Amino acid sequence: MRQIQVRFESQIGLLYLKTSAFPRTIISRKKMLEIVWKNVFSFILYHYLAFHGLFYLVTGHTHWATFAFNLFLAQLSNLGTISGAHRLWTHRSYQAQLPLKLFLMFCNNISNQNSIYDWVRDHRVHHKFSDTDADPHNIKRGFFFAHMGWLMVRKHPEVTIKGQTLDFSDIDSDKLIQFQRKYFKFLAFFCSIFLPVVVPWYYWGENWYVSLCITFVRYVGTLHGTWLVNSAAHVYGTRPYDSDIKPTENPIVAYITMGEGWHNYHHTFPWDYRASEFDSFNGNVNTVFINFMAKVGLAHGLKTASLSLIQRKKLKSTNSTTNKKQLQK
Ligand SMILES: [Zn+2]
Ligand SMILES: [Zn+2]
């Protein structure tokens, strides 16, 4: 048996997942579905606290300011994941000045959805090998797997093997990203859990346990929001830009995630900073935010797909759908 060649590690929240990649031939089916129990139990704990928090919310056992504060943090968290890790660092769909990068990194710590480095790595692999075994959250393995199950089992070896063929030199050499990666456990705990629990307790006398539970309502809620892009927006919705791929246009996910549900468009034109054809609001708060940053001079080089290219792709997709329907008759 050949020795392990590479390690593929990823963090999610307070969890730390480790996966060793073996040559494909010696991986058994059982090994491919090996459950990481530590992560399973952590998710159960997170959801227990979140449900407890929901109970406090609906029964009026929490200060209104605690709710408002966590709602505000959820917006920041979303900017850190979507405008930061996704549109800036994964797809390089626009350029940002240092103050904006620092702000987005801070927001990313609040979101606590992997370090920027790990998020970028997983997401680039997802785009490149979408809906195959090399996709970390391959929708063909089921809705639950794509949603959150992939974080509870060891990664498929194809993810590691094929993932290593991609270019990560930009994030390897980015000092800010490397800094956050190095101290991520502390930064994420401090920004995502510790501060949000302490601020309501200290400033308006919230019970610390209630504050903890509301913090987990926010955290678990934002996790599910992001996960819906990998699950629901790969199953439910229309495919006007490319009918041959799984990602869909899903308005509900778009509104929940502040602009990430226009996923068929995004997979077709991943370099477009809007992650949507339309400039108008459409729930796309992140596009509004990036536009504003560009106006005040903190963002530049915003990339978009040209209207003629979009029209050509739409026409091609329509023809492909028509051909498929005729073949089925
Ligand atoms: Zn996707
Ligand atoms: Zn993407």
Question: What number of structural domains do the residues give?
Answer: 2
Distance between the termini: 51 Å
Shape: globular
Give the helix level as a range of percent: 55-70%
- Biggest sheet, in brief? 2 strands, antiparallel
Rg, please?
20 Å
Number of strands: 4
Give an account of the 3D structure:
The protein is mainly alpha-helical and 329 residues long. It folds into two domains: 1-33, no CATH class; 35-314, no CATH class. It is built from 15 helices and four strands. The protein has helices spanning 29-32, 37-58, 64-90, 98-111, 116-128, 143-147, 157-163, 169-172, 175-182, 184-204, 208-230, 251-256, 263-268, 285-295, 307-328; strands at residues 6-12, 15-21, 95-96, 299-300. The protein has a two-stranded antiparallel sheet. A two-stranded antiparallel ribbon has the order 3-4. The longest helix is centred in the first third of the chain and has 27 residues, at 64-90. Residues 1-27 have low confidence and may be disordered.
Walk me through the topology.
Layout: E1 6-12, E2 15-21, H1 29-32, H2 37-58, H3 64-90, E3 95-96, H4 98-111, H5 116-128, H6 143-147, H7 157-163, H8 169-172, H9 175-182, H10 184-204, H11 208-230, H12 251-256, H13 263-268, H14 285-295, E4 299-300, H15 307-328
Antiparallel strand pairs: 1-2, 3-4
Helix pairs in contact: 2-11, 3-4, 3-5, 3-11, 3-14, 4-10, 10-11
The structure holds zinc ion (ZN) (2 copies).
The site of one zinc ion (ZN) has 7 residues, from helix 3 and helix 5.
